[in-house]
Amino acid sequence: MLLVLETPDHCLIVRRTSLLDRLKAMLRAPRLDAELAAGASPDSRPELALRARLLVRVPTRRRLARTVERLVATAQQPPPARCCSPVPVCWDRVRDSASELRQLAMALAAPGPVPARGVALAMVLLCDGAGPLYRRASADDLAGQVRHAAAALDPRGWC
Q1: Torsion of CA 78, 79, 81, 82, to 10 degrees
Q2: What range does the domain containing 94 cover?
């Protein structure tokens, strides 16, 4: 697979991906997601470009949207329905942020291209065990982070 990458001096180069690039993208996915969420250019390194390509694919985005929808639906059920959850979710925060989470799910499932940063923000939100979704001691605002991720999915925000 060929990638177009941007060098630090803003030149574009075409580079063929290697097996090592693909392995790095797979094995370092959480770290790459965090870098993309923080604003790293997907075109700066092969493993970031490969991870960004995977994140923006419609099947990946739909899977994330379904996960968000399941979180909201589960939070609305009585506590016994959630007793078997393998991860301690802060269900009250999910209920309080249900409207924002539904907006995020809709933005993820929307057709058309979206910025990789927005999908990475959603992925980090859902996977970060130290974040406000899972950790009661987290001072971060779940609704605010969800709104931020949904806004970053708007393709009109691209330069």
Answers
A1: 140
A2: 2-157
